[in-house]
Amino acid sequence: MRKILGIAAAAFLIAANGAQAQPREKIIIDSDIGDDIDDAFALGLALSSPEFEILGVSASFGDTVTRVRMFDRMLGELGRSDIPVAMGTPAAVNLNAFTQRRYAEGGTMAPRPHPNAVDFVLEQARKYPGQVTLVAVGPLPNVGAMIDKDLGAFRLLKQVVIMGGSIRTMNDPLMPLDSTANLKFHEVARTALFAHGSMLTNILAGLYYEWSAATRASTPILYDPMTLASLLQPSLCPLTPLHITLDDAGNTKETPGAPNAEVCLHSDADAFAQFYVRRVTGP
Questions:
Q1: Do the domain assignments include residue 16?
Q2: Strand order in the sheet with 4-7
């Protein structure tokens, strides 16, 4: 699912204003963590960014039970068990794609409740009207269920940033690979990241090697972290206002009309890699 759609989006800029700090951006990350490696890297970026107030994370699509366990373990090992972990409805689909299952099913974490993902996000939207950014970086059953359950509450979200869709290309019916497929995390960047030796980078390194062994791939494409990076530094993936519709097959289409989304059409891969390593290895 590869294209950033910023629905009713306004890029968040963090800036110094004398002694008065800007309020942190309230975010919720809806993710199919555990399949591809970029979801874990996205969580790592969010945790490394003080501009974000992470209200929670939610597991979406397929084996959400194991996805929740992976979230619990990562957050627990990083001392962030204060962040709620919500769970979408489990479904027996795409189970063989879970490449980081050994990590997710390992470890010993204290049991804790996992609210329903749809109810959790809608509750946060009602609690903080116009303030919450939903960052959806996986398939969208949770998002669709939110809209079906309470469209009014869903519209209380400040914005929805989606890694999905395909614009001006036929490569992928969901997220334009043309805009983010160049975000390859090459060996130089990986070496710099993994050599840092923090708990977070050690976890990411272990997950990378587990993913690499499962997929027989060596160079991940960090699609999902760009959703968050573009909020922090919009120049990495500038947004273009477009009018987007969906056809009967679920394909995103650019059509005439007043803009209803902001779409990333091009990304700066080198600047993104440098930004990611600098942010995640920073103080």
A1: no
A2: 85-87, 52-59, 25-31, 132-136, 159-163, 4-7, 261-264, 239-242
